Amino acid sequence: MPVFFEWSDELSVGIQEIDEQHKVLIDLLNVLHDAIRLHHGSEASGHILGRLADYTRSHFMVEESLMRILGYPDYDEHKRCHEDLIKQMNDLQARLLGGEAITFELMHFLRNWLINHIMEGDKRYTKHFLSCSAQATSHKKSWMERFWAKQMAF
Question: Where do the coiled-coil regions begin and end (predicted)?
Answer without folding.
Answer: none
